[in-house]
User: Fold this.
Amino acid sequence: MQYTTLTQIAKTLEYVHGASEVLKLDSDVLKRMLNLEALINKSDDLKQYYMSLLKYDIDSGINDVKCSIHKVAMTANISKTTLMDRIGPFHSNNQYIPEKRNPAYGKHAYRYHKYGEHTLYLNLFYDPNSPGIIPWIKLEFAYPSQEFLVKLFNVIPEFTFSLMEYTSDFYCANFIETRALFFAFLHFGYFSYVKEIKIKIEKDSENLTFYAGAAIRGYEKNDAKKGKECSEEELNVLRVEYTLKDDNLTNQELRNPTMFIENAKFYSIVSKAIQLKSPGPRSKYLPREWGPYFALTNEIAKIRENPESKNVNPTQYLHELSGFEHLQAMWKVEMMRFDHDWKEKGKELLTLS
Assistant:
C-alpha cells in the first residue's frame, strides 16, 4: 500500500475520525486496524464497517472479567550486596542496555525466587545514574502475592512501592468481539486527565494496542499465548492496564507496603481512571453517542483546547452509557470481589506476621 493510497483512505475516513488522526498511523497499521483490503475506495462501506463494530452486540460477547495486580516495582536505598545477603544471589545481565529497558539504572540482574510452590522472576536494577536523587536499587516482578510481599518486607523493611499496574482482562467469545470491545473503549472511553488516545501495532504482531496518556494501555491478546505467537483470529482477550507511579501512589497512600497489603484499592482507583461514557444528547460541543468520531477522550481535549469553548466543561455532558450494562456490571463486581479477597487475605497475613 503506497502513501498516496493511504492519503486517499484518510480522506474517505475523514467523516469517521479525521485525516490528521489517520495519517499518524503507517499504512500497515491502518490496513490492519480497519481491515481495509476490500473497502479501500468505498467511503460508505468504511464508515459502515467502523460503526458496525461499535454497534456490534459487544455486551453479550463478554464471557468473563478477571482483575489482578499485574506488576509492581519497589525501591530502597540499600546496596545490591545487602539485598543479596537478605534474599539470595542475583545473576548479572551482561546484555542489559539501559536506554532500551531502564535508563535510570546502569546495571541489571535477575533471580528466579522460589517460595512454596511458586517461582517469581525478580528484576533488579542498580547503579543509578543520579545517586542521591534516584534510589540505589529498584526491584520489579509480576503477579505479586500478598504472602510473598509480607515475607519480602519482613527482611527488607526499607522497600517502598514506586509502581503498581492494575490489570483488567475481558474474555471475549471470539476475535470479532475482542476487536469490537477494543474500539468501544476508544469510542466511549473517558480517561481522567488524558488528552489523547493513540493506536499502535507492534512489529511482527497482529494485535492492536491503544495508549491513553502514559498510564493507560489496552491491547488484544490470546488467553494462552503471547501476542506475537498468535494470529488475529486467535485474539480473545482485551487487557486494559492502569499504572500508578510515585506521586500518584503517595496520593493514594499506597507507597507504604503495609497499606497496600491491607487494601489494594482496585475499584476506587480504576473506576475513576477508566470509564465508559456517552457524550449525551444535550451538548452542542460533544458529538452524538453513535456519531462519527474516533475517541471520546480526543473530542473532549479538542473542546478544552478551542478558544471559543474555553469556559466549557465538556465532562458535565457525559452520561451513563446504555447497552453495556452487562459488561460494566461484570467489571464492577469483579473489581469489588478482588478488593474483598485482597483485604481478607491481608488482614489474615498481617495478624500472623
